[in-house]
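Record 1 of the preview.
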Amino acid sequence: MVLTGKNAIVTGSTSGIGLAIAHTLAGEGCNIMLNGMGDKAAIDALVAEFPRKYGIKTVYSGADMSKPGEIRQMAADCATEIGGADIVVNNAGIQCVSPVEEFPDDKWDAVIAINLSAAFHLIKATVPGMRKNNFGRIINIASAHGLVASANKSAYVAAKHGIVGLTKTVALETAESGITCNAICPGWVNTPLVQKQIEAKAKEGNISIAQATANLLGEKQPNKKFIQPESIGALIAFLCGAHGEAMTGEILSIDGGWTAQ
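->
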């Protein structure tokens, strides 16, 4: 329970990677502000489950991560309801796949807003409190696509490369303050976003979901296995603990060998 008494905002945490991260941090004693989309009953169940399971405070913000004002309000609500954010995990993300000349303008704007600008706005809103407390842990979920590109993902790749640059800059600006800022670059994780891509590949190639999955993994990821969300959560827990205090500005791959090629 190395994070007992700490407070975390985890964006995009009502499912997938973000939910696994929230569970991991809660298991270390951290109070959690959940954020994300989903069925109200399911979200209410999560808000009730976390305190019962982990003995921590849990609240939910439905902030739209494309709207800076709502992001600022989420940070303020966290401070009011569970305490100022000691840990921020910028995880929320969306995807759009299209050739650049056909890429819809509104989809470009949405991907950049949610995958990149949202992280900037939440960091800006929470760093002052972290400076005051001489402690903060900012973890940005980038992607293997923050280091290398794939065709037809111009907005996503641009946003994730931007997250890598933002991480390094914030790390330099906060290096003497007790705050760290790091990015994690996962390979393929079987999230709803990835499942949609698998289904699209299956339909396009008139192949089974199993074959489309194998093709997706075989194309990029040498170990041909999905990254487990819990592994990402465990790495974040390490970064938030005492042994991670000297790690800042790090871009950490967990990608089954993807970017070693």
